[in-house]
Request: fold
Amino acid sequence: MSVTPMTAAHVARKVMDNEPLFILDVRNGDAFADWKIEGGNIQYLNIPYFDLLDGVEEVIDQLPKDRDILVVCAKEGSSIMVADMLAEEGVETTYLSGGMKAWSEHLEPVKVGDLKDGGELYQFVRIGKGCLSYMAISGGEAAIIDATRMTDVFLNFAQEKGATIKHVFDSHLHADHISGGRHLAEATGATYYLPPADAKGVTFEYEALESGFEAGIGSSKVEALYTPGHTIGSTSFIVDDQYLMTGDILFIDSIGRPDLAGLAEDWVGDLRESLYQRYQALTDQLTVLPAHFMIMDELNEDGSVAKKLGELFKENHGLNIEDEQEFRDMVTKNLPPQPNAYEDIRKTNMGQITPEDEMQREMEIGPNRCAVR
Amino acid sequence: MNADKVLDAKGLACPMPIVKTRKSMKDMDSGQVLEIQATDKGAAADLTAWAKSGGHDLLEQQVDGDVLKFWIKKG
Reply:
């Protein structure tokens, strides 16, 4: 009886294709409750590995015979042990190679549209953590927005496409994940742009991203639009008058929270103005491309996270709260817990601390939690 | 804190810190205290959950450089 690994990429494909899967998650109950592999057609059983050390007999009855079983733990060691024990009892399973850490780091590139003159726009879906990055490619040049820490993925992708990375943007100073922007710029000689209002504590050189700034790549252009509220510097991008990257201000089924830098009360007015005035002034036909998703329902059938601005104005609850006080209460009270290690993540993104790779992985464990619904 | 026994689980990856803790505990009497030293960061949450589910008392935990130390009283 065999025990075979399944890669995070393979699991991501299954999730995006809505294939049936049974997950036996052997992490402790708190870790499972906090964060797990999400999917529309996944069934779960959570039993900590330390409750299975005497044997797996009692679990076997609870496992299905008609769907693949994936054993999952934090780093893979315990899932291999449990999968081995199940194999000895004649139950065939796979385990998640690299565990939830690998799941957290996997990026799935999804094409979201064509740009003029043969250009392309890609969304990189970090399916385990809900982060979304973007690469616009035109005429052999590329611009990257909100890159995650896994910079090799972007470097290799640009190389495959024969594109030189010219511009690297962050929509704001991130608090839920470590930005790859600065390292991408260093590796390629590209320019790294940050909104200056978010960059007060930054220890490295960057180009100030001001509203109205335009960067050209091939035949396409990336335009900056100041939309504060999640942070005081939060900036959106418009690509070729067709696509609107909203950063952490507007998501598909929720809106940004203003509290991760500790200033919820101060920024709620900015958030409202960005959502209810600045976006309202744009054309409904723009395709909104956020920096996060929170639930799998926000994914389209092809795995992309994108919707027309006009539809969001109709459907997104956060864009439809007429009463200002009600809006203020929603985004400042009863907020979900803050992302894991968010203060250290902000310091890392400012260059104030430089944790080792393993530490950076630990800091990013868990969901992104950048939204309020 | 005084311990009746010390388990060195440094350098071991999950699930070994718990597997060894459990084995050491089996040879001890109820009320005795085991000190566990580990470097796997996941050990903190897992030992806490394991002690609770097994009816043991996690008396104290400390961080000493890279080493996590735990004192668990057998239930």
Q: What stands out?
A: Residues 43-54 of chain B form the longest helix (12 residues). The mean pLDDT of chain B is 94. The interface with chain A takes residues 13-16, 18-19, 22, 41-42, 45-46, 48-50, 53 of chain B (CB under 8 Å).
